[in-house]
Structure of DNA mismatch repair protein MLH1:
Amino acid sequence: KPPKEPPKIHRLDEAVVNRIAAGEVIQRPVSVVKELVENCLDADSTSINVVVKDGGLKLIQVSDDGHGIRYKDLPILCERHTTSKLSAFEDLHCIKSMGFRGEALASMTYVGHVTVTTITQGQLHGYRVSYRDGVMEHEPKACAAVKGTQIMVENLFYNMTARRKTLQNSADDYSKIVDLLSRFGVHHINVSFSCRKHGASRPDVHTVATTSRLDAIRSVYGISVARNLMKVEEKDNDPSSSVFEMSGFISNANYVAKKITMVLFINERLVECSALKRAIEIVYAATLPKASKPFIYMSIVLPPEHVDVNVHPTKREVSLLNQEVIIEKIQLVVESRLRNSNEARTFQGQT
Ligand code: ADP
Ligand code: MG
C-alpha cells in the first residue's frame, strides 16, 4: 500500500475557535449563573436577584445593585480577554476578585444572546445594549435603570444543537441553579440573594443580609439542619507544612440525611474538593455511623500564593499547596469535635 498523504493542516476560523472555547467555560445554564453572580459580587453588590426560564435555556437574568459599568467600556465589555480585574500575570498570585480572565461575558455572547442594562453612580439614566459574538449589536440606548447592572442571557446554546438537546432532556438545571444560590447565600451573608422561575411569584431561594451564619443556613437549608450544627474552627501557622484558617459548621449525631451536603469556599471561592469531602465522610462513618452523611459548611483561607485558581476553565477545582497536610489536620479537628459532642451526649443520656 502506498503511504497515505498526511491531511493538510489549516487554521480554524476565529468564530469556530471562540465558540469551542466558550463551550468549555459555559458548560450548562448553571455555569452562566455562577459567572454572572460572581461578577455581581465583584461589583460590590448587596442584593442579587436571579430569574430563570426553561431551566435557563430560554432566559437567565441576573440583576444587582453594584457599581455598574462605565458607558465608555460598553463597546469592549464582551470582547474576549477584556477585564477590569487583572493586568499582569503576576497579579494572579494575589487576585481577590472572583473573575480575572475577562472570558465569561464574551463566552456567553458566542453561545447565547446577551443584553446588558447598567447605570453608574450619579447618572440620570442607564444604558442598554445587546451583544453577539463578542461585539455590540448597536450603539447603547439610553434607558431608565435602577442602581447596578442587569444581564440577560437568552437562547443559550442556540447554535450548539447537540448541547441544547442533551440539556433539554435533563430537567435538573433549575435545581442546580437553586443549589448554587443557596451556597452563595450561606457564605456571603452580607448579601441578599433570590432566585425564582420566570413568572413565579415566590422565589425558591431567598436570603436577607444578616450577621449570623447560622441564620443564613437556617433560612436556606431549614431549621432541622440549623439546629443540628456545631461550630468548627482551626488556625494553623506552620510555615514549613501548612498555613491556613478554617471555620465552619458541621452536623452532629442527630442529623441524618441520604447524602452529604458540602458547601466549601476556599479563599472566598465556591469550589469542589472531592479529596476533602471524602476525608470528612470517612471521619463521620467511623465516628457517627448512623449520621454518616453530614452537612458541612466550611470556609478555608490560605495565603493566595498557595492556591492555584487557574487550573480549570470553570474555576471549579482549585489545587492547594500541601493539600494532604491540610486535609489531615481538618480531619483531626472534625473528629475531635464529633467525639466531644458524642461523649457529651452519652453523658447527658446517663444522668
Ligand atoms: P472577569 O470577571 O474575568 O473580569 P467577565 O467577562 O466576567 O470577566 O466580565 C468582564 C468585565 O465586565 C469585568 O471585569 C467587569 O469590569 C465588568 N462587569 C461584568 N459584570 C458586571 C457587573 N454585574 N457589574 C459591574 N461590572 C461588571
Ligand atoms: Mg467574571
